[in-house]
Design a protein that fits this description.
single chain, 185 residues, mainly alpha, Tetracycline Repressor, domain 2, 9 helices, elongated
Length: 185
């Protein structure tokens, strides 16, 4: 990881990966977007591969920390926390965040390091949400399956029916969320 001075390059890399995939994360493009010379990049990173490695580490650490924080009960019941998570992920559309997620997943199809980062994030997400379902009374295998459905919904709903009227889309999301929160599935 960088010493903090490379954070601006990592942020620029994330913006570019969301826009054009990992192929678009090139030193020249980032330098131009930041309005600086390529020399500034090489004072912070050995090469493009080092930047990409730091981006993967930053992404995976950030996503894991986020789900651990979001799934923490903090005095709230597990069912209420699940409802809050559904609301969090379906209420607002973070197009850049989703672009980054999709680009990293596409990258993972051909790169072992990206695949490992995605696997660690998926594992943490599923573990935390499964823990919430177990706390609502689900058996471990059923909790794992419900957590899997939860994430299929969370990511899927952000990709489909974007052209539907907002009210109808909100109704679909609310009805789907009810199903995810049913005690008898």
């Amino acid at each position: 990881m960088t010493d903090g001075k490379g954070d601006v390059w990592i942020a620029a890399g994330f913006s570019e990966i969301a826009r054009s995939g990992v192929e678009g994360v090139r030193v020249e493009v980032l330098a131009k977007n930041l309005g600086v010379t390529k020399g500034g990049f090489y004072r912070r990173f050995k090469d493009r591969a080092a930047l990409l490695a730091d981006m993967l580490q930053s992404w995976s650490e950030g996503r894991i920390a986020a789900i651990e924080q979001q799934a923490a009960l903090d005095g709230e019941g597990a069912r209420e926390r699940l409802k809050s998570l559904i609301h969090l992920y379906s209420e607002r559309t973070n197009t850049e965040g989703m672009g980054i997620e999709l680009a990293i997943r596409q990258w993972a199809r051909s790169d072992a390091a990206a695949a490992a980062a995605v696997a660690s994030v998926d594992s943490a997400r599923l573990k935390n949400v499964s823990r919430l379902y177990r706390a609502t009374g689900f058996e471990p295998d059923d909790a794992d399956a419900q957590a899997f459905l939860f994430y299929c919904f969370v990511f899927g709903q952000s990709l489909v029916f974007l052209d539907r009227a907002q009210r109808r889309r909100a109704q679909l999301i609310a009805k789907s969320a009810e199903k995810l929160l049913d005690e008898k599935v």
